[in-house]
């Protein structure tokens, strides 16, 4: 026993490391210093995290190796380089938005050291703070996984921990189960923070149920009081009733009075009684028949002079505007549920990919002794734009020349170096490892597009900033679409058509669809009685025959002239002003005035039309492109051969708005956009759009599949439509083939070597008079006459001075078809 007591005394006298630390912490000076240190750390952490939320993109250059070493490179974070790295660790790598609890944990530590009574328990503070960071990290990651902000702050608002926790929970329990689990732990954390929360919640439900019970009891009491009052009134009425001559018991009389009072509303008189003789019945039937006839057919009597339109309108009609939609008043616009949601095929650009490309860009520029002051990234669906701010003294041309070297170092497709207008930065566009699909449904539901007040609203894709790109086709006024085969032209045309179908009523818009391939636009054939326009004698609303195309274009020219006559008579300059006058009932329909719907002419495979019809197609298209803007006819032309003999100077002059999908060579890109860039696209909907007023904008075209187009067409065709398609003016064959007749009329004066010279020109693809002289041993005068005859036949273009003429026919087979008609 004595030995045991001695051992216990030795152990009690020996101080452990924890005891020594406790004595040090009990020192007031040490506690004050630690309290101040934790307080300053809390302030610094809070400032660094808040600043990181707004400047994390612009501080990416600090992640490179020389980023921290160079003194001339500064961070935009309020905590400087250290604050950026510290906040990046807490927010991006760990807890995301849950990192905001860390400053409160540090503040709690500061209060612990300042408070002598030690009411704060360190272990509880640490556990609740850690739990809060993890729970909030998982919560923000789960909530923002359903929104476009899921890639905010790199790995998302929930950080890496929240991202992986959310991914594991969703894979194990699904989205609903993961939400329930996260909500449970959030409530558990709140309850552990304050036990009084449970009492407050249960008290809230008790008060709610008590209020419901009081309302139900009050309603029952009011019903019982009303029933008692009604019985009392009925009893008084029965007591005051005077007795009749007949001997009726009192009880039966009261019942009769009550029944009469109950049945009184049913005896409302609708029409006066009519005697039942045959003449009167016949007159009544005739009146009903006349009334129905008047309801079905408007009266043909004209009040006053027919030329006086005001005399034919009542005061009520003058007060109301004419509404063209009343012709199909029950028409419903297509619903977004008809389109597919491709949210499952949206791939986020990881933080590692952004940092890797950032390092490679900086290292490549460093190898060529080009220093930069800042670099930031804008993540798009297909391409990420890295905005590089060069250091002072660095020329822009130095970076532009390194486009191929940057593409080689990144080992990526679609790398372009562009100038960013309005900034001091240079943009480097790099294709994402996993491109995302831009669904037509997502851009049609965009709030900006829904609020846009365009005459012909079109939304076609998303920019690098992930914003829906929309424009007014009426202000373009015509659109040229070009690109190589299989790069997205047909999908782009479907996106344009679908945008208009979702926003314009059938009474306000008509389409003329030309499809030489016969398969691309055939899905819109069911819209014949709603949106399509065609010739009166045409069987199909989708025009596929070349001769029918020529007739239709000539008919549109006649319609254009007719509309210009109406604009002149109405003293207006364009179709918008004319329709406004007509809707305000200021134009007389008896004088030929009518509401003018917009007409959009969509021509697919324009190159094929020029090969088969040549000048007969080009002349009316050029005339429509020059004059049809003011009267509401707009052209959308697509071609897969963007060569100079297809996209001529006349076409380019009248089509300032152009869309370029991926092409093979830079020459084709210059033909479409007057600059390179389309040859560096990655395909599959990657496109450049130029409106003629600014630099081309890179977009990812919206994807709409064939079943989606079919769903929209079936939805519209299932509704009541007009009696038939919108009929264009009739055009005689002589009018449509005016150029052919003129060329035939001059066939007698055509040179004997005309056919041989035409084959030579088409075979060599050089429209030169000297070529005819050398190859055929002719004099200059005779060769010049043959060249003029070739121009009249539409085989070559007009003279361009010292340059060779453009050869409009590209194959000998097409030439033989033309020569057979001459």
Class of secondary structure makeup: alpha/beta
Looking at the structure, what is the overall shape?
elongated
* Residues in β-strands, percent: 5-15%
Spans of at least 5 consecutive residues whose pLDDT stays below 50 are 9-13, 231-311, 736-748
Helix content: 40-55%
What is the C-alpha radius of gyration, as a whole number of Å?
41 Å
Report on the biggest sheet: 9 strands, mixed
Please state the average pLDDT score. Answer: 78
- Please provide the count of β strands: 15
Alpha plus pi helix count:
30
Straight-line N-to-C gap: 133 Å
Q: How are the strands of the biggest sheet laid out side by side?
A: 6-5-14-13-12-7-11-10-8
Helix and strand topology:
Layout: H1 2-13, H2 17-26, H3 28-55, H4 80-95, H5 101-114, H6 122-144, H7 159-193, H8 196-240, H9 250-263, H10 278-296, H11 315-319, H12 351-367, E1 372-379, E2 383-390, H13 396-400, H14 403-410, E3 416-419, E4 426-431, H15 440-444, H16 447-451, E5 457-463, E6 468-472, E7 479-482, H17 489-503, E8 509-514, E9 533-534, H18 546-570, H19 575-583, E10 598-603, H20 606-613, H21 615-627, E11 633-639, H22 649-654, E12 657-661, H23 666-673, E13 686-690, E14 697-701, H24 706-717, E15 726-727, H25 733-736, H26 738-745, H27 754-764, H28 769-776, H29 780-792, H30 812-821
Parallel strand pairs: 7-11, 7-12, 8-10, 9-15, 10-11
Antiparallel strand pairs: 1-2, 2-4, 3-4, 5-6, 5-14, 12-13, 13-14
Helix pairs in contact: 3-4, 3-5, 4-7, 5-6, 6-7, 8-9, 12-14, 18-21, 28-29
